[in-house]
Write a structure and sequence with these properties.
By secondary structure, the protein is α+β, with helices and mostly antiparallel strands. It folds into 5 domains: 168 residues, Hypothetical protein af1432; 131 residues, Beta Polymerase, domain 2 (2-Layer Sandwich), CATH 3.30.460.10; 118 residues, Ubiquitin-like (UB roll) (Roll); 77 residues, no CATH class; 81 residues, ACT domain (Alpha-Beta Plaits, 2-Layer Sandwich). The chain contains 33 helices and 21 strands. Strands 1, 2, 3, 4, 5 and 6 form a 6-stranded mixed sheet that branches. Strands 14-16-15-17 form a 4-stranded mixed sheet. α4 crosses α10 and α19 packs antiparallel against α20. The N and C termini lie far apart (78 Å). The N terminus and C terminus are likely disordered.
Length: 748
């Protein structure tokens, strides 16, 4: 290999294979397509490929696309695109047949299986559109389609490859859609979902072309302006760029490194995103023009890097080594920006031929052509840093944790759009996470059970808050409970969909268990009150007579207040006399309140809550109210909510703070402070609260009039006495006129 020159081209177009992909090029014939596949897969079945081509052409018959072309041209171009990245025979045939089951009345999936085999049929089934299903809304339709699509993709990444090829060709012919709004809708969906998915598995040129076409319909004026500025800038800097290209070739020759040199020009949409993200001018974008230097070996990459940095000054904050730590989609290369000839900033990308193949073809670069069974080469993939199963596993995890379709879509978008941070386990295992991830995200990335039992973390050997964002290179040790427990406030402690879905699942499981325990204790206590020993009672028969599917379902219904103890006893034991006051007599009393909590502590935030209306504190006289689907809500005995339920004693539970303390409840006191409306007053009050040992979790302006301002503080405290100390500290400030404890009813 010898150094070569290159002209500057749009990267996506420069990367595309030479023929059969764009609509302005001749459609491949059946023989040409078969020859293309056989050129890289020697054991492909030529006759079966020809049969698939003929089958698609025959079944689509006289159908026409909106462009006026025969419909069969679409699957042929999809198959051609798939062959350009050298996918296996089954995937090529799936590309040819992917629309036949849905669009052709006389074709069933069983026909595909009988004629072309189970593998092809499963791929076609995974890609087939779901338009025949009924949806509640357009948003729901998009979400459910995407959810089912990813579920299929997790099992076989080729489904995704066929779907991406299908979407890319549809984008290339989008101009034939007459409805302007339809073009914009398809473009937005492509930008949101399909382009990020393509980039996630390394198909950068597919993602880039999709984005560029979508950009053309979503913001045509901006794209046109960027293209004009690129043309002007390239014309102005042509001589500098030619000199830089020549200098690169001379440096490589001097270093005795055989290489290929390719010019690269940033795409309009990529430039637009950088202009938006960094709020900079067009001419301040440092990497509009660049060069790719493709060598034979990894050592030559670093040798070339050293030579370039010796020749030209580099920008330290623009250096990235993706060879040492590849991107999650397997992309590997060294990127550096140098100040070269004419004081021109130019990005250099240095990589090997294998890395370039992965950059061009993504997952398709790692298929095993040597075995008789054409399959994904996992060993080659992982050696290159690419694991499509792991790469899409985050989406599969969302499904396994029971996310509904629209939650799934939201979190899937979050997973795709984030840049990444890498951290390590204490044993040196590399864990890739979205930027902004925290220890709980890390724990779930290691293993679901590690996340379920996470209670804290040491980062680089030092105990850190669970809200600490992880940085590149951090070593994270997860501290664990003995048993799985949901984390309070997990929404603010996680950014990954996987962690949030798992925490929701854990919370549901804990909630179900605790409501069932609550219901069991209620029923057993009720039975004892009517002089029936629960030990000798067959709970399964009671559940059956009461119409429940099982004992657990009955207990949970009681715990959630969906069912009354008196009603269950009346159904199960018709001979027991129950009067109109049975519910009141079966209400929980002091003796049994502790039984409900001791030994089976309710989880704060799951089935045990402190009332937002009165903000009870240790030291207050309290009572618990059972609320449907919430469990126990703790109120002060003077709370208006309690008074509103005085005619329903069956909902009351007498509690003591000693029992609640076992559950780790954090008490929040709410106070209102009237102070002079002067500069710095809030800072003085916050300082006084902090010095008194309080933790402010919320501040609200209640009223502002004349020279005074009323501020409402929510403060985490140990108990009622602690709150009184904080109030005293605030009253001692010269700027403070009044400090009182506040209830929600007063605030409103």
């Amino acid at each position: 290999m010898t150094p070569a020159t290159a002209r500057f081209e749009d990267r996506s177009r420069a990367s595309l294979p030479p023929r059969g992909l764009r609509d302005d090029e001749p459609l491949l014939s059946r023989e040409e397509l078969a020859d293309t596949v056989l050129s890289y897969q020697k054991d492909a079945d030529r006759e079966l490929l020809l049969h698939a081509y003929d089958f698609a052409r025959e079944k689509h018959g006289d159908q026409l696309r909106q462009s006026g072309d025969p419909y069969y041209s679409h699957p042929v171009r999809v198959a051609t695109l798939l062959s350009s990245i050298r996918l296996d025979q089954a995937t090529i045939m799936a590309g040819l047949l992917h629309d036949t089951v849905e669009d052709c009345d006389d074709v069933e999936l069983v026909d595909i299986r009988n004629d072309f085999g189970k593998d092809v049929a499963e791929l076609v089934d995974g890609v087939t559109k779901l338009g025949q299903l009924h949806y509640r809304s357009e948003a729901s339709k998009q979400a459910e389609n995407f959810q089912k699509f990813i579920l299929a993709t997790v099992n076989d990444v080729r489904v995704l490859l066929v779907k991406l090829a299908d979407r890319l060709h549809n984008m290339r012919t989008l101009q034939y859609k007459k409805n302007v709004e339809a073009r914009r809708r398809v473009s937005r969906e492509t930008m949101d979902l399909y382009a990020p998915l393509a980039r996630r598995i390394g198909l950068h040129y597919v993602a880039s072309e999709m984005e560029d076409i979508a950009f053309q319909y979503l913001n045509p004026e901006a794209r046109e302006q960027i293209l004009k500025q690129i043309e002007v800038l390239e014309s102005e800097n042509k001589d500098d760029l030619d000199r830089i290209r020549t200098a690169i070739a001379e440096i490589m020759e001097r270093e005795n490194i055989a290489c290929r040199i390719r010019g690269r020009r940033k795409e309009p949409y990529s430039i637009w995103r950088k202009l938006e993200k960094k709020s900079i001018r067009f001419r301040d974008v440092a990497d509009i023009f660049g060069f790719r230097i493709i060598t034979d070996t990894v050592p030559e990459c670093y040798q070339a890097l050293g030579a370039f940095h010796t020749e030209w000054a580099c920008l330290p904050d623009r250096f990235r080594d993706f060879i040492s730590v590849p991107k999650p989609n397997g992309y590997a290369s060294v990127h550096t920006t140098v100040r070269a000839s004419g004081n021109r900033l130019v990005e250099l990308q240095i990589r090997t031929e294998g890395m370039n193949d992965t950059a061009e073809r993504g997952v398709a670069a790692h298929w095993n052509y040597k075995s008789s069974a054409y399959e994904f080469d996992a060993e080659s993939s992982k050696a290159a840093g690419l694991d499509p199963a792991a790469n899409l596993r985050a989406f599969g995890d969302l499904l396994s944790h029971g996310s509904d379709a629209e939650d799934f879509l939201e979190h899937a978008k979050m997973e795709m759009y984030r840049t990444h941070v890498f951290a390590f386990t204490p044993k040196g295992q590399l864990v890739l996470l979205p930027a902004g991830s925290m220890p709980l995200d890390f724990a779930y990335a290691v293993h679901t059970m590690v996340g379920d039992t996470c209670e804290g973390a040491n980062i680089n050997g030092v105990a850190r808050n669970m809200r600490t964002p992880l940085q590149n290179g951090d070593v994270v040790e997860i501290l664990r409970h003995d048993v799985p427990q949901p984390v309070r406030g997990y929404e603010t402690l996680t950014v990954t969909g996987r962690a949030r879905a798992a925490q929701r699942r854990l919370r549901r499981e804990r909630e179900t268990l605790e409501f069932a325990n609550l219901g069991r204790n209620m029923l057993e206590r009720g039975l004892r009150q009517v002089e029936i020993d629960p030990v000798g009672v067959d709970m399964r028969k009671i559940a059956e007579r009461a119409g429940f599917d099982g004992v657990s379902a009955m207990f949970e219904a009681l715990g959630r207040s969906h069912e009354e103890v008196a009603h269950i006893i009346k159904i199960a034991f018709p001979g027991v006399e129950l009067d109109d006051n049975a519910s009141e007599r079966l209400a929980l009393d002091d003796q049994h309140a502790a039984t409900m909590i001791a030994g089976k502590n309710l989880t704060p935030g799951v089935t045990l809550h402190l009332g937002d209306c009165c903000h009870p504190l240790p030291g207050d006289r309290i009572i618990g109210l059972r609320e449907a689907d919430r469990g126990l809500v703790v109120h002060t005995i003077y709370c208006g909510t309690v008074a509103a339920h005085e005619d329903r004693p069956e909902l009351w539970v007498d509690l003591q703070w000693t029992e609640l303390a076992k559950s780790g409840v954090r008490a929040v006191g709410r106070i209102i402070v009237t102070a002079a409306d002067n500069q710095g007053v809030l800072a003085q009050q916050c300082s006084a609260v902090a010095q008194a040992g309080g933790n402010i979790i919320g501040v609200t302006t209640h009223e502002r009039s004349g020279q005074f301002i009323d501020l409402v503080f929510d403060i985490e405290v140990e108990d009622l006495r602690h709150l009184e100390q904080i109030k005293a500290a605030l009253r001692a400030l010269a700027v403070v006129e009044r400090v009182e404890r506040l209830e929600e009813s007063e605030f409103e």
